[in-house]
Structures are given as structure tokens and as C-alpha cells.
Design a protein that fits this description.
By secondary structure, the chain is of the alpha+beta class. Among the domains are: about 70 residues, no CATH class; about 130 residues, Beta Barrel (Virus Head Decoration Protein, Chain: A), CATH 2.40.300. Helix content is about 15%, strand content about 25%. The chain contains 4 helices and 17 strands. Strands 8, 9, 10, 11, 12, 13, 14, 15, 16 and 17 form a 10-stranded mixed beta sheet that branches. It has a 3-stranded antiparallel beta sheet with strand order 4-3-5. It has a two-stranded antiparallel sheet with strand order 1-2. Strand 9 and strand 10 form a beta hairpin. It is rod-shaped. The model has no long low-confidence stretch (mean pLDDT about 80).
Length: about 350
Amino acid sequence: MGRRRKFKSGGSESEVTIDKSKKYKWDSKGDFVEFTGDPGANEITVSGSKSSLRRLAEIERNIGILATTLTTSDDGTDDGNNASFSKNVNQTTRFKKAVRLDKTLNMQDTIDMNGDKITEVGTCTSGTDAANKTYVDLQISNLGDTAPAALNTLNELAAAMNDDASFSATVTNSIATKLPKSGGTMSGNIAMGGSDITGGGDATFTNFHGQATTAKYADLAERYAADATYEEGTVMSFGGEAEVTSAQGYGSTAIAGVVSTKPAFAMNSEAGSSETHPYIALQGRVPCKVTGTVSKGDILVASEVSGTATKWLESSVDPRMTAYVGIAIEDKTTDGEGYIEVKVGK
């Protein structure tokens, strides 16, 4: 015959009739239920037996289970501010304050952050991805992407910028001190060392100081106002409607020089253009219009052909200085007009 006793069942206290020949336990839901066979290692059990020895044995067993549960369920300490867990926690744990992880956190279920969040990197594909090492490693790797090994960490990037928190402003200010390619004014001297300044354009200086200069061409020339436009190699004399005009007449005096289109050193360059103010070679080597045969070393003077030189025929005496055009550098073996290289000046 059964007897009625009050037990907690399903979270509330109610009377349950137990049979003395049967065994009972509290299941995982908290309900007081009958069972057959042997109880689980951690299950609290009750029997309907009237035997005092059996009841004492049940009490001793249940107390042992409760004692073991109490010493393992906390798995740590709590000083009122921080909780420290040294064993596995297999049930839902709710953190209401900061959590510091000193060892591996193996998450098999939800962590209740009491309204706060664990910030994710990227978009998770499942509830466990945020704690999945492969997923986290991939997201961290994507931060470096294809950057070279020497610059794929934040520390390396910071070191490359000299740990300068104002790196952008530093670079901007540094660029502002540089001379732009379009030109500008230097505030100091340029020291070239043993290097050269090269280029196809013009270089303008107020004063030039140096040990030596070089030039592609071979004459010193100056601009003079001319009464017409003259081509390269024309022999010029002072006179006419402007400063110079085409020389004419054998051995005529007042010779100015020979028209040069590629002077090595150009004087009075701002006087005008080559059409109105041609460069007249005063010294050096230039092409020159010549008529008749000429040999190297012949003295040249003006000829009867306007603007053309010819060799000096008087072997016993040199021409007057003002009639002197130059000396032939090469031979001309044909009659008529042509060009030869001439050293102008005396």
C-alpha cells in the first residue's frame, strides 16, 4: 500500500503517492518520477521502503552527490567583483561584469553578455563562427591582404612611418619645401658635387662662376641690326641702312664677320630676332660662303659677289685688318660658290 509524502516536483511542492516497492528520482526537468534499474551516478533518489537502514543509505548517497555537485558547479571563486573559473562550466553562465580570459574559452552554447555584445569581425555564418579559430585567422589575414611581409602588420606600418601620429601632416609639410617641376626660386645654393646639369632647354644665370665651360658649337657671336634677313655663312660689313649689311667688293674694309645660326657663346641676345638682328660670328669656327677655289690656310677677304668671301691673292702682303674675314680650314676645289669651314677673326 502506498503512502503520501510531499516532494518538490516540476518546481512546485505537491503531494506524491509513492509505493514502498518502487524507486523514485528527480529527472533533468526537476520532476519527481518513478524509475527502474540502477540510478545515474549523480541522480538524487528516494525509495518507498520503510527500512531505516535503506533510508540511511539513500541519505548518505544523496548527501555525497550534493556535496560533489556543490564543489564542482562553481568551478572557481568570486570576490564580489570578478569571477575566476578553473574547471569546465557546462551550464549557461551569465556575466554581468568584465570577463578576462587567461586560457582557452570553449564555447558550445550562447554567452549571455547582459545586453552587451561581442564585436564580430566580418559577418558570421553560424553562431560559433565568432569563436572559431579558422574564421578569426582568416579575418585577421584579410586585414593584411596582399601586403608584403615587411608591411602586413599594424606594428610594421607604424614603424615605417616612424611611429608618427601626424604622418600625413609631416609628409605634406615636407613636400611643401620641395621645388616643383614647373620651376621656382631656390632659397640657397645648389651643390652638384661631381655631377652635371643636363637638359635640352635654356639655363639663365645672372652671374656664372666656374673653372671651365663646354659648348657644342664653336664661335663667339653678337647680335647686330641688319638691313635685311641674311642666311648662315653670309659675310657682313658695317654700313648700309642699319648696323650691318652684306659685304661686297674684293678686299673691302669694315668687315664685321660672318652670319652664325648656332653660336657657342651668344652676346647681346635680347637685342632682337635672327631675322632683324642676326648673330655675327666675331671669333671662332663657322660655315662661310666662298667663291672660287680655296686651300687650307688661305686668307679670306670679301669678293665681288655680295656676302661671299674669296682667297687673298696678294702673297707679298697681308690684307688690312679691317678687310680680314678669316682663314680657310678646308679646301674648295671647284669654281663658283659654295661653303667651307672658316676660322673667323684674326
